[in-house]
Amino acid sequence: MKQLEFESRNQDFWREMDDFLSQDIGPKASFPGDFPKRYRRLCQHLAIAKSRGYAISLVSHLNDLVKRGYQAMYGNKSIDRQNMLQFFAYGFPAVLRSNSRFLWVAAAVFVLPYVVYMLGCWVNDQLLYSIMDSRSVRMMETMYEPGLDKFGRERQSASDIMMFGHYISNNIGIAFRCFATGIFAGLGSLFVLAYNGLVIGGVSGHLSNLGYGETFYPFVIGHGSFELTAIVFSGAAGLMLGYALIAPGKLDRKTALRKAAGDAIKVMYGVFVMLMIAAFIEAFWSSSSLTPNAVKYAVGAFLWVFVFYYCFFFARTRVAAYQSLYGTR
Length: 329
What we know:
Blueprint: H1 3-21, H2 35-51, H3 56-74, H4 84-98, H5 100-123, H6 134-142, H7 160-180, H8 187-210, H9 213-246, H10 253-286, H11 293-312, H12 316-326
Helix pairs in contact: 1-3, 2-3, 2-12, 3-12, 4-10, 4-12, 5-8, 5-9, 7-8, 7-9, 7-10, 8-9, 9-10, 9-11
């Protein structure tokens, strides 16, 4: 559809929305029953105009209507005062989708070494020793021996609460290294991502070679949906910083870094919450030998679908509105 036809079909609707939003709408205003539906339609129009490259004036006009509609419905608040629940419902997916190119790079750098080394260690049980010492390999093996009361633990006597704290400390440490080392032109984040991909993939292949797959995979499938994606997201946040330094565009590097850090920090807010959830699942659910493997696989599959749907498909029109209002890149 050409722009002129698009405008002629929807001009009256836009004018009605403009007239309504131009009224003095208080915080306790009563909206028409169909306003949410009309607002979603407006967001769709903005998305269409952007994707088809329509005139900047039209995109700007629709963007202004979307902002005003959002402010009318949810309040004119800055991101610093925004309700945390609203941020995690829409803001976190918004910043992820706005920076999807960094997510794809981070995912590739993590997943490719993972797959290659997993296959390599599955075929050759000595390959893992090239990146891990023999003591660490043996400790990893003993953590997944069949017949244990709790899997994935160095010390079987450790309580669930103690392991919960241990997992939080360990996982957040990895995520912070993925993020913070991005300041070195992104090279640090790439290295940490690749190295963790090698280690995790190598352990997966090695334990599969030993026949421990029936204990290892039911253990990791539940919390892995939050933990592994959070590691990738933290690497992507580091790449945002590195890219701003090596390709600042028309901005000076200091300004470019400051702008990139705004989105990167938002990503890390979500990462820390995801790692808290992962640690809770790992300590209180994944490690249990009492839960049947079939149940663990079913729950794990559900969690993987949930995480991907939430991050990349959930509430597209509301997320698009959040992007427009708060300027996520």
